[in-house]
Amino acid sequence: MGIGKSKTDPCPLSLSWGKSHSVDTSQRHHKSDSKKSEEMSLSDTAAHSNTAEMPTGEQEGARGVEEMPEEEAEEEVFLKFVILHAEEDTDEALRVQNLLENDFGIKPGIIFAEMPCGRQHLQNLDDAVNGSAWTILLLTKNFLRDTWCKFQFYTSLMNSVNRQHKYNSVIPMRPLNNPLPRERTPFALRTINALEEESRGFPTQVERIFQDSVYRIQQAIWKETRNTVQRQFIA
Protein backbone atom coordinates (compact mmCIF):
# COMPACT_ATOMS: atom_id res chain seq x y z
CA MET A 1 0.00 0.00 0.00
CA GLY A 2 2.48 2.54 -1.14
CA ILE A 3 1.82 6.20 -1.58
CA GLY A 4 1.30 7.37 -5.16
CA LYS A 5 4.25 9.31 -6.60
CA SER A 6 4.17 11.81 -9.46
CA LYS A 7 6.07 10.80 -12.55
CA THR A 8 6.68 14.48 -13.32
CA ASP A 9 10.40 15.28 -13.20
CA PRO A 10 10.83 17.94 -10.48
CA CYS A 11 14.04 19.16 -12.11
CA PRO A 12 13.72 21.57 -15.10
CA LEU A 13 15.20 20.69 -18.44
CA SER A 14 18.82 21.78 -18.86
CA LEU A 15 19.43 24.93 -20.86
CA SER A 16 22.27 25.63 -23.31
CA TRP A 17 24.04 28.41 -21.46
CA GLY A 18 26.45 30.70 -23.39
CA LYS A 19 25.58 29.49 -26.91
CA SER A 20 23.54 32.54 -28.01
CA HIS A 21 25.40 35.83 -27.49
CA SER A 22 22.48 37.91 -28.79
CA VAL A 23 20.34 37.22 -25.75
CA ASP A 24 20.89 39.37 -22.69
CA THR A 25 22.29 37.51 -19.67
CA SER A 26 19.69 38.89 -17.26
CA GLN A 27 16.94 37.85 -19.68
CA ARG A 28 18.28 34.31 -19.79
CA HIS A 29 18.34 34.17 -15.99
CA HIS A 30 14.79 35.53 -15.88
CA LYS A 31 13.54 32.87 -18.35
CA SER A 32 15.38 30.12 -16.50
CA ASP A 33 13.89 31.10 -13.14
CA SER A 34 10.45 31.40 -14.71
CA LYS A 35 10.71 27.93 -16.23
CA LYS A 36 11.94 26.43 -12.98
CA SER A 37 9.02 27.96 -11.10
CA GLU A 38 6.59 26.73 -13.74
CA GLU A 39 7.84 23.14 -13.73
CA MET A 40 7.97 22.96 -9.95
CA SER A 41 4.40 24.20 -9.90
CA LEU A 42 3.41 21.51 -12.41
CA SER A 43 5.16 18.87 -10.30
CA ASP A 44 3.32 19.94 -7.16
CA THR A 45 0.03 20.04 -9.04
CA ALA A 46 0.56 16.52 -10.41
CA ALA A 47 1.42 15.14 -6.98
CA HIS A 48 -1.64 16.81 -5.47
CA SER A 49 -3.75 15.44 -8.32
CA ASN A 50 -2.52 11.89 -7.73
CA THR A 51 -3.40 12.14 -4.04
CA ALA A 52 -6.79 13.62 -4.80
CA GLU A 53 -7.60 10.81 -7.22
CA MET A 54 -6.84 8.14 -4.61
CA PRO A 55 -9.89 6.65 -2.84
CA THR A 56 -10.57 8.12 0.57
CA GLY A 57 -9.49 4.92 2.34
CA GLU A 58 -6.14 4.86 0.53
CA GLN A 59 -5.56 8.56 1.28
CA GLU A 60 -6.13 7.87 4.97
CA GLY A 61 -3.88 4.84 4.78
CA ALA A 62 -1.17 6.89 3.08
CA ARG A 63 -1.39 9.57 5.74
CA GLY A 64 -1.36 6.87 8.39
CA VAL A 65 1.97 5.59 7.08
CA GLU A 66 3.48 9.05 7.49
CA GLU A 67 1.75 10.19 10.66
CA MET A 68 1.04 7.07 12.71
CA PRO A 69 3.82 5.00 14.33
CA GLU A 70 4.01 1.38 13.32
CA GLU A 71 1.66 -0.68 15.47
CA GLU A 72 2.94 -3.72 17.27
CA ALA A 73 2.07 -7.06 15.76
CA GLU A 74 -1.00 -8.66 17.26
CA GLU A 75 -0.01 -10.95 20.08
CA GLU A 76 -0.51 -14.62 19.40
CA VAL A 77 -2.83 -16.54 21.69
CA PHE A 78 -1.87 -19.70 23.55
CA LEU A 79 -4.76 -22.07 22.89
CA LYS A 80 -6.47 -24.33 25.37
CA PHE A 81 -6.59 -27.28 22.96
CA VAL A 82 -6.06 -28.44 19.40
CA ILE A 83 -7.96 -31.36 17.85
CA LEU A 84 -6.00 -33.63 15.51
CA HIS A 85 -8.34 -35.54 13.22
CA ALA A 86 -8.69 -37.37 9.92
CA GLU A 87 -9.58 -35.27 6.90
CA GLU A 88 -12.97 -36.99 6.66
CA ASP A 89 -13.75 -36.03 10.27
CA THR A 90 -13.56 -32.25 9.94
CA ASP A 91 -17.27 -31.80 10.72
CA GLU A 92 -17.05 -34.09 13.74
CA ALA A 93 -13.98 -32.22 14.95
CA LEU A 94 -15.86 -28.92 14.66
CA ARG A 95 -18.74 -30.38 16.65
CA VAL A 96 -16.40 -31.48 19.44
CA GLN A 97 -14.70 -28.08 19.41
CA ASN A 98 -18.05 -26.34 19.83
CA LEU A 99 -19.00 -28.80 22.57
CA LEU A 100 -15.89 -28.06 24.62
CA GLU A 101 -15.99 -24.32 24.06
CA ASN A 102 -19.70 -23.65 24.47
CA ASP A 103 -20.84 -26.33 26.92
CA PHE A 104 -17.74 -26.50 29.10
CA GLY A 105 -16.20 -23.04 28.55
CA ILE A 106 -12.85 -24.44 27.46
CA LYS A 107 -11.64 -21.87 24.96
CA PRO A 108 -10.07 -20.88 22.75
CA GLY A 109 -9.50 -24.08 20.81
CA ILE A 110 -8.85 -25.03 17.20
CA ILE A 111 -9.05 -28.03 14.90
CA PHE A 112 -6.13 -28.96 12.69
CA ALA A 113 -8.10 -28.25 9.50
CA GLU A 114 -8.26 -24.58 10.54
CA MET A 115 -4.51 -24.15 10.78
CA PRO A 116 -3.07 -21.57 8.32
CA CYS A 117 -2.97 -22.66 4.68
CA GLY A 118 0.14 -22.40 2.55
CA ARG A 119 2.50 -23.72 5.21
CA GLN A 120 4.10 -27.12 5.56
CA HIS A 121 2.10 -29.69 7.51
CA LEU A 122 5.03 -30.29 9.85
CA GLN A 123 5.22 -26.59 10.73
CA ASN A 124 1.48 -26.49 11.39
CA LEU A 125 1.70 -29.62 13.53
CA ASP A 126 4.54 -28.15 15.59
CA ASP A 127 2.66 -24.87 16.06
CA ALA A 128 -0.56 -26.71 16.96
CA VAL A 129 0.99 -29.02 19.54
CA ASN A 130 3.34 -26.51 21.15
CA GLY A 131 0.93 -23.59 20.84
CA SER A 132 -1.78 -25.25 22.93
CA ALA A 133 -2.07 -26.80 26.37
CA TRP A 134 -3.75 -30.05 25.30
CA THR A 135 -3.68 -32.13 22.13
CA ILE A 136 -6.90 -34.06 21.52
CA LEU A 137 -6.70 -37.07 19.21
CA LEU A 138 -10.12 -37.66 17.66
CA LEU A 139 -10.28 -41.46 17.59
CA THR A 140 -12.67 -42.47 14.83
CA LYS A 141 -12.52 -45.35 12.39
CA ASN A 142 -11.06 -42.94 9.87
CA PHE A 143 -8.18 -41.98 12.12
CA LEU A 144 -6.08 -45.11 11.59
CA ARG A 145 -6.73 -45.19 7.85
CA ASP A 146 -4.76 -42.00 7.43
CA THR A 147 -0.96 -42.36 7.58
CA TRP A 148 -0.67 -38.68 8.42
CA CYS A 149 -2.89 -39.19 11.48
CA LYS A 150 -0.66 -42.00 12.68
CA PHE A 151 2.32 -39.70 12.35
CA GLN A 152 0.44 -37.00 14.27
CA PHE A 153 -0.31 -39.12 17.29
CA TYR A 154 3.20 -40.64 17.47
CA THR A 155 4.74 -37.17 17.23
CA SER A 156 2.38 -35.80 19.87
CA LEU A 157 3.19 -38.65 22.26
CA MET A 158 6.94 -38.21 21.80
CA ASN A 159 6.58 -34.48 22.41
CA SER A 160 4.72 -35.12 25.67
CA VAL A 161 7.44 -37.52 26.80
CA ASN A 162 10.40 -35.30 25.88
CA ARG A 163 8.99 -32.09 27.35
CA GLN A 164 8.22 -32.23 31.04
CA HIS A 165 5.55 -29.52 30.97
CA LYS A 166 3.75 -31.42 28.19
CA TYR A 167 3.33 -34.56 30.30
CA ASN A 168 -0.26 -35.84 30.17
CA SER A 169 -1.13 -33.23 27.55
CA VAL A 170 -2.22 -35.78 24.87
CA ILE A 171 -5.89 -36.71 25.25
CA PRO A 172 -7.38 -39.50 23.11
CA MET A 173 -11.12 -39.01 22.63
CA ARG A 174 -13.78 -41.30 21.23
CA PRO A 175 -16.61 -39.11 19.94
CA LEU A 176 -20.24 -40.11 19.66
CA ASN A 177 -20.10 -40.54 15.89
CA ASN A 178 -18.07 -43.35 14.32
CA PRO A 179 -15.78 -44.00 17.32
CA LEU A 180 -12.74 -46.25 16.99
CA PRO A 181 -13.32 -49.57 18.84
CA ARG A 182 -11.08 -50.09 21.85
CA GLU A 183 -9.67 -53.33 20.44
CA ARG A 184 -8.44 -51.46 17.37
CA THR A 185 -6.81 -48.66 19.33
CA PRO A 186 -3.00 -48.61 19.01
CA PHE A 187 -1.23 -49.98 22.07
CA ALA A 188 0.54 -46.66 22.72
CA LEU A 189 -2.86 -44.97 23.15
CA ARG A 190 -4.39 -47.72 25.26
CA THR A 191 -2.13 -46.72 28.13
CA ILE A 192 -3.82 -43.30 28.27
CA ASN A 193 -7.28 -42.84 29.70
CA ALA A 194 -9.42 -41.72 26.79
CA LEU A 195 -12.32 -39.30 26.90
CA GLU A 196 -15.48 -41.26 26.16
CA GLU A 197 -18.21 -38.92 24.98
CA GLU A 198 -20.92 -41.55 25.34
CA SER A 199 -19.93 -42.20 28.95
CA ARG A 200 -22.01 -40.72 31.78
CA GLY A 201 -18.79 -39.65 33.43
CA PHE A 202 -17.74 -37.56 30.43
CA PRO A 203 -18.44 -34.15 32.08
CA THR A 204 -16.42 -35.17 35.14
CA GLN A 205 -13.53 -36.34 32.94
CA VAL A 206 -13.50 -33.01 31.11
CA GLU A 207 -13.43 -30.98 34.34
CA ARG A 208 -10.65 -33.12 35.79
CA ILE A 209 -8.42 -32.90 32.69
CA PHE A 210 -8.80 -29.29 31.50
CA GLN A 211 -7.71 -27.40 34.61
CA ASP A 212 -6.88 -23.70 34.46
CA SER A 213 -3.85 -24.13 36.71
CA VAL A 214 -2.26 -26.51 34.19
CA TYR A 215 -3.10 -24.15 31.35
CA ARG A 216 -1.49 -21.16 33.06
CA ILE A 217 1.72 -23.09 33.75
CA GLN A 218 2.03 -24.14 30.11
CA GLN A 219 1.13 -20.64 28.92
CA ALA A 220 3.91 -19.10 31.02
CA ILE A 221 6.48 -21.59 29.68
CA TRP A 222 5.28 -20.94 26.12
CA LYS A 223 5.66 -17.17 26.50
CA GLU A 224 9.12 -17.49 28.03
CA THR A 225 10.24 -19.79 25.21
CA ARG A 226 8.97 -17.35 22.58
CA ASN A 227 10.69 -14.40 24.27
CA THR A 228 13.97 -16.30 24.44
CA VAL A 229 13.80 -17.17 20.74
CA GLN A 230 13.00 -13.55 19.84
CA ARG A 231 15.94 -12.23 21.90
CA GLN A 232 18.30 -14.69 20.22
CA PHE A 233 16.99 -13.68 16.80
CA ILE A 234 17.52 -9.97 17.51
CA ALA A 235 21.01 -10.63 18.87
From TrEMBL:
Keyword set, alphabetical order: Cell membrane, Cell projection, Cytoplasm, Endoplasmic reticulum, Endosome, Golgi apparatus, Immunity, Inflammatory response, Innate immunity, Lipoprotein, Membrane, Myristate, Phosphoprotein
Gene Ontology BP annotations: inflammatory response; innate immune response; phagocytosis; positive regulation of canonical NF-kappaB signal transduction; positive regulation of chemokine (C-C motif) ligand 5 production; positive regulation of interleukin-18-mediated signaling pathway; positive regulation of type I interferon production; TRIF-dependent toll-like receptor signaling pathway
Keyword Endoplasmic reticulum carried by entry: yes
Region of interest (Disordered), residue spans: 1-70
Cross-referenced Gene3D superfamilies: Toll/interleukin-1 receptor homology (TIR) domain
A GO term, aspect molecular function: signaling adaptor activity
InterPro entries in UniProt: TCAM1/2 (IPR046946), TIR_dom (IPR000157), Toll_tir_struct_dom_sf (IPR035897)
Biased composition (Polar residues): 40-53
Keyword Transcription among record annotations: no
Signal peptide: none
Location(s), subcellular: Cell membrane; Cell projection, Phagocytic cup; Cytoplasm; Early endosome
Oligomeric form and interacting partners: Homodimer. Interacts with TLR4, TICAM1, IRF3 and IRF7 in response to LPS. Interacts with IL1R1, IL1RAP, IRAK2, IRAK3 and TRAF6. Interacts with protein kinase-inactive mutants of IRAK1 and IRAK4. Isoform 1 interacts with isoform 2; the interaction occurs in late endosomes and disrupts the interaction between isoform 1 and TICAM1. Interacts with MYD88; the interaction decreases after IL-18 stimulation in a time-dependent manner. Interacts with IL18R1 and IL18RAP. Interacts with TLR2. Interacts with RAB11FIP2.
Role noted for this protein: Functions as a sorting adapter in different signaling pathways to facilitate downstream signaling leading to type I interferon induction. In TLR4 signaling, physically bridges TLR4 and TICAM1 and functionally transmits signal to TICAM1 in early endosomes after endocytosis of TLR4. In TLR2 signaling, physically bridges TLR2 and MYD88 and is required for the TLR2-dependent movement of MYD88 to endosomes following ligand engagement. Involved in IL-18 signaling and is proposed to function as a sorting adapter for MYD88 in IL-18 signaling during adaptive immune response.
Protein name: TIR domain-containing adapter molecule 2
Native organism: Lipotes vexillifer
Source species taxonomy: Eukaryota, Metazoa, Chordata, Craniata, Vertebrata
Underlying gene: TICAM2
